[in-house]
Amino acid sequence: MGSVPLMRTIALNTSAIMGSSPVLQNYINGQWVASSTTEFLEVVNPATTEVLATVPLSLASEVDQAAQAAATAFVSWRRTPASDRIQYLFKLKALLEEHLESLARTITMECGKTLAESKGELRRAIENVEVACGIPMMMQGYNSEDIARGIDEFMIRQPLGVTAIIAPFNFPGMIPFWFMPYAIACGNTCVIKPSEKVPLTLQQIMQLLEQTGLPTGVVNLVNGAKTVVDAILDHPTIRAISFVGSTPIARYVYSRAAANGKRAQCQGGAKNPVIVLPDADMELTTRIMADSAFGCAGQRCLAASVAITVGAAKQTFTEAIADTAQSRRVGYGLEDGVQMGPVITAQSRDRIHHLIQQGANSGATVLVDGREPAIPGYEQGYFVRPTILQNLDPTSELAHTEIFGPVLSLIHLETIDDAIALINQGQYGNMACLFTSSGAAARKFRYEAEAGNIGINIGVAAPMAFFPFSGWKDSFFGDLHGQGQQAVEFFTQTKVVVERWQDWTRQF
Predict the structure, then answer these.
(1) CB 55 within 8 A of CB 22
(2) In the chain, where are the structural domains located?
(3) Do the beta carbons of residue 325 and residue 366 sit within 8 Å?
(4) Of the candidates 238, 264, 265, which has an alpha carbon nearest to the alpha carbon of residue 60?
(5) 227: buried, middle or exposed (CB in 10 Å: 19+, 13-18, 0-12)?
């Protein structure tokens, strides 16, 4: 997020590129408008390297236009009853269901994941819309009569005003829905900045939102990169920031937002460890672990990154996961039978290659090497096959580096206590999982492991929409997470009223 060079920047005018690929527009105050910028990026299909569209790197002045439109819309929107506000979400849910196939294909084309993964992502988005439709109850306050004689006190929740969402590339259809449905259902208005790598999905979603008849200015979209992010963080009208991305950028966004007096919830990176005990069901464990480590090409904040085998689990699990990694079918996600797609950019692929070599240089064995894969028909795509690094040194730099690719590192320890201690030494705390058939071991693990999302015989401990997407340590900056009741608390401010009335009975 801090810089643009991950994609090729081109300076041109709109008319010069209309013939080659569509130029995306911003959505401000109910209108699709062309950016005034002279800088654009190509949106590239990472499997085929086809240019899908051109996205503008919008100006700070365009963020101001969106924020002002949202502020104007807020005056009326906050006075709209919650039961009326959620009617637009009911309509949106129906439209998302109707267009799920088309949206999923767009996600696969611009993001690289398989069509099944894209559909699963959208199911999670729809789930959040459904939960946010419960705002009339979730937003309720509470009261007490006679806190002193004749005096009552009650707490109510009111919306903040204009909020903003800075979305990542890896889940363009899901992560904005951790925040947006709750924000607008609570009576706020919103400005969304999609990732400049994958802006097409949110373009389609905004078109569906437009079809619901949502009042103009309630939700706005501004394409761009760091200039747009900084304009959002500095804008005096924007009250709250929701961000998902890498830890360095999450820390930057949180710090700058806080310095400007804004609320912020910033999800950062991860190095998700998984403990495999000897009593685990190895067939089940291997299948689930492969899906966790290699699903979405490892580009998700809940991907298993390190498998810690304990005792006799080492040989059995190592052999099984190596066979599974080697047999996983890699290719274009729109093709039947493909189990894993490419990573997002050539730069990401090269970075992953470098980190694999770094692991080898530090003493790890490249048990399964996914570099330089040959994908027939897609030789130019940004592919990395599943890779396994065996006997990674727990003290090495790579053991604490987020690879964000289909690379699983194996570490062996003798006891569960050693494994939990290793987990708790890490800087991240997004997810930690345990595979076992022992209830006692499971309880010990969930009690002691220092991570916000815990899985027991689960490879991707992704919370349902009615639970918060938790995160600890350097995986999260803030107090209130996305989804569920915590999202409602984040997008509202409490007001406590203490009132006394003259005894009305004396009037009669």
Answers:
(1) no
(2) 65-268+475-495, 272-456
(3) no
(4) 238
(5) middle
Cα 281 from chain centroid (whole Å)? 30
Q: What is the largest CA-CA distance in the chain?
A: 91
**Band of residue 372 on the pLDDT scale cut at 50, 70, 90:** confident
Whether 296 sits among the annotated catalytic residues: the reply is: no
Between CA 249 and CA 262 the distance in angstroms is 16
Which of these, 390, 401, 409, lies nearest to 428 by C-alpha position? 401
CATH number of the domain at 272-456, out of 3.20.20.140, 3.40.309.10, 3.40.50.150, 3.20.20.70?
3.40.309.10
Q: What angle do CA 220, 194, 9 make, to 5 degrees?
A: 120
pLDDT band at 507 (very low <50, low <70, confident <90, very high): low
CATH 3.40.50.300 fits 65-268+475-495, yes or no: no
Mean pLDDT of 459-466: 97
Q: Determine the Cα–Cα distance for residues 404 and 502; give it in Å rounded to an integer.
A: 65
Q: Alpha-carbon distance 195 to 143, whole Å?
A: 42
Which residue, among 191, 93, 253, 152, has the nearest Cα to 497 in the 3D structure? 152
Percent of the chain with pLDDT over 90: 94
**Distance of alpha carbon 162 from alpha carbon 394, whole angstroms:** 45
Query: In DSSP terms, which residues pair with 389 in a beta bridge?
Result: 366, 409
pTM here is 0.94
Q: Can you give 266-297 as a three-state secondary structure string?
A: EECCCCEEEEECCCCCHHHHHHHHHHHHHHHH
Q: Which of 186, 190, 301, 433 does the annotation list as catalytic?
A: 301
Residue 143, classified by CB atoms within 10 Å of its CB into exposed (0-12), middle (13-18) or buried (19+), is exposed
Residue 10: what pLDDT? Answer: 38
Within 10 angstroms of residue 97's Cβ, the number of other Cβ atoms is: 12
